[in-house]
Amino acid sequence: MATATVADALADVRRRLAEGGVADAAREARLLVGGLLKLEPAALISGGARALDTSEQELLASAVFRRLNREPVYRILGSRPFFDLVLTLSPDTLEPRPDTEILVERLIPRAQKIVADRGACRVLDLGTGTGAICLALVQAVPGVVGTGTDISPGALETARANARLNGLADRFEAVESDWFAGIDGTYDIIVSNPPYIPSVVVEGLDDEVRRFDPRRALDGGNDGLDAYRAIAGGAAGHLATAGFVGFEIGFDQKEPVTVLMGEQGFRLIEAAQDLGGNDRALIFVRA
What we know:
This protein has helices spanning 6-19, 25-36, 41-46, 54-68, 73-77, 98-118, 132-140, 153-165, 199-202, 207-210, 226-235, 254-263; strands spanning 79-82, 85-88, 121-126, 144-150, 172-176, 187-192, 239-248, 266-273, 279-286. The model has no long low-confidence stretch (mean pLDDT 96). By secondary structure, it is α/β, with parallel strands linked by helices. Helices cover 43% and strands 20% of the residues.
C-alpha cells in the first residue's frame, strides 16, 4: 500500500473502498484509518501530514482487503460503540446495531422507576451476545443489576469481557442457559433481542450479515417466531410483580408477537419504531 502520510492513507482507503462497491466509502475510510491508527476524528485532519511506518501501512492494507471481502468495519476494528459503552465483538456474537438502542431507551425510564420504588432492579437479558442490552441498562441506571444468558460459551466470555472493559463486572453476571432452562428466581425486567429472521430469509441476507454474524443469532425458525414462543412460554414464571418484558422484533412481527404474548397472559403497553419507521421494540406487562 503505497502511502506515506495519514492523509494519503485516508484518501487511498476511501478510493479503494469506493471502487470495491462499499456504499459509504468516505465514512468507512475514516472509521478504519482512525480506529486502526488510534486517531480521534479531529486528528485525522490535524495529523494528516504524519508519516506512516511500514507496519501501519500493512495494517491498513489488511483492513481494506478484509472490508472488500465484505467483513463489517466494526468486526475489523474488533469493537463498536453502543450507547455509552465500547463493546468488543467475537465470532460468537451478533454485532449490536443502533436499532437495538431503541429498546434500551424505552426500558431506561421503567428501570429508573423500579429502582426508585424498590431500591434495585433485576434485569434478565436472554440471548445476551455481547451483553449490549443488559450492560447498557446497568450503565445507564444505578441500582440495576443484570444477568445475561446465552447458549454460546464464547458469547458469554465476550459479555464478561465487555462488563470488565466498561467497569460493570460487579453488577453483571453471565449464565449459560437455553432461554430459561438455567434460570431460577424472578426479575423486574426480562429483555431479549432474539433470533427473529425466518430460516428461508437468512440465506438471502447481505454478505456482511450472513457470513459474519453467527447463524443461530439470526435464524428464528420457519416463521421467525421460535424464540418468541419459548420466551413467552417461560416469562410469567420468572417475572416479578409489575415487571416488564421487552423485545426487539423484525419489521413485520408486531402483531404475531403480541398474539403470542397475549396467549400467555401479557398485554402490550408500548411499541416503538426505528428511524426507518419500522416496528422495532415491544414492551409487555401481565394482563
